[in-house]
């Protein structure tokens, strides 16, 4: 009896997956009207309605061109051959809370203001876990040496603290951000405006392969889809949605990053920008965003996390364990309670160290990301399991 | 009878001047308690009270050390020999409205929060006229090549538009600001923390001499006074008070410019800061001030004037007259009314030029500082008499 029920559930799951994949191919991108229909009647019924053209007027246009193309099995074969998978809202891996904001935007204002139907994914990381602590780092295609250097420094620091770097795999700052994350052994996610089988830009073929090997390459467009101008704007909303904040390192006067920043603001994510020389064309966009209150000025990873991070940061990857501690550091760390906080004077009593030694040791532990401090005193920083 | 009255007025004026000068020597700097006494009983009576020690407790301390030093005639001889003068609140040249804010601050919070008793001045400019349109440009002593270059560019633009540059004659940004103003043939004011006869820093002797030849060297300290640490903080308030806004080009982490910015904010003057590379220690202070909302990010002269300037800017010095105009520029300029504004279409009708030619000509006239534009249309910019 149980086996039978499980079979039905499995069949139902398969049917739903095929429906999601079919619809993803039909609309190829965000479609608020289709999302609304799915919400109303369920994905299987929505897929049937699309195939049989039993549709409200608002959905005829967006579905007409490809509703006859029914090839979900093929699409699933393709993505499997690529070593990838499709992640649907039915999957445990679906980053549901990241997508909440997109579903709450007004689609009347912007046709892209919709949750993606599915996400096509290549790479070993779990999409949900990898986006739990993530910062989007984007910027000018025509970046300067300064911009690339600063991107490298900030991204390395963020990645070393366990933050995932989300970007768009474009030339310039995007590429520098992915590369710095990879170099630090951190997690990075490239969100594409084409199918995950398409290396775009072509010169980033190797970079995208590397990202797919250790991080994630993500797209809402089915395999085989080419990058279109319009896709980039829709892609930017996913970059913003998948992260806790958007950091712009460099941006020219008419930069596409402004669009990503706009999405961040609409989604309630902090938008941050790095200043640069006022003599550099690559920083003009950042300065304007800061000046006009669209983005907050930041100069280093700590300031990014002040805005995008939770109050208590996770343990940096570079310092794997408190067991590495010795001397005063070990004594002071041991004197800290597992839960709650303690004042330096109490730590001195507990550890047997003189107060000045405790005071000198705490900042070192803090720099190592092992302890933090607030009005209530000093506390251990608990490392989140990945 | 009239002659007699004039004599009395003259005598009275002399007596008052001697009283101001005597008190300036006695307190050597701002003294809110003395300013209050002068307001109550007048400057002559206040001077008598100080000399004879008929004083409230609050004034005994600040006046005790030098109340016996009565040498106003000597001081006036000295400043005259230096080719300078003393400017008192009785003089037409006194920048009364610039000083209003200082008199309204709470002296209980800060002993320096007072109007200077007098200003000792060297230089050919009228202090009142020269501070009518003025921007303070200050910054790090340890400036970078970048900072000096940006200072030069912004100051040249401001000076060319007829704005006076106020600064503190220090090494680094201050010096670069004065030099750029001098090089552009603009007006510049150095506010010192010592007597105007003291070259401070000594290496700026020549610079200060140049400023005294074409601009103004100003101090509230009587001739002969050395620079003391405390004087610099009091001097900073005058730098802020004498200008429409304070621009910081570079500032280190523990920069004295933050004090000038604090005064600007207390006086309701906009505080502005130029960003720079986040990799430069000389920009750390600017970034912090922008980040913490203490200063607004600006990148060029236009943005400085957006904040510190009036709606309609004065004619730049570089373009002396509309008589220099020829061709379309002359026709379009002539078509503009002396008072009020006009739309491009009307200007086309008035000038006989085709509309596209008018549209192309207006921005050139605007760049030359001859015309401006707002919601009501285009208008002539009237040059202020100096």
Low-confidence stretches of chain A: 311-321
User: How many helices of chain A?
Assistant: 17
What is the gyration radius of chain A calculated from CA atoms? 23 Å
**Beta-strand share of residues of chain A:** 5-15%
Backbone structural class of chain A: alpha/beta
Q: Main beta sheet of chain A, described?
A: 9 strands, mixed
Overall 3D shape of chain A: globular
What is the H/E string of chain A? Answer: HHHHHEHEHEHEHEHEHEHEHEHHHHEE
Task: Please name the fourth-level CATH homologous superfamily of the domain at 322-380 in chain A.
Answer: Winged helix-like DNA-binding domain superfamily/Winged helix DNA-binding domain
Mean pLDDT of chain A: 90
**Largest interchain contact:** A-B, 20 and 20 residues
- Please estimate the helix content of chain A: 40-55%
In CATH, the architecture of the domain at 322-380 in chain A is: Orthogonal Bundle
CA distance, first residue to last residue of chain A: 37 Å
Give the strand order, joined by hyphens, for the main sheet of chain A: 1-2-6-5-4-3-7-8-9
CATH class of the domain at 322-380 in chain A: Mainly Alpha
State the total count of DSSP E strands of chain A.
11
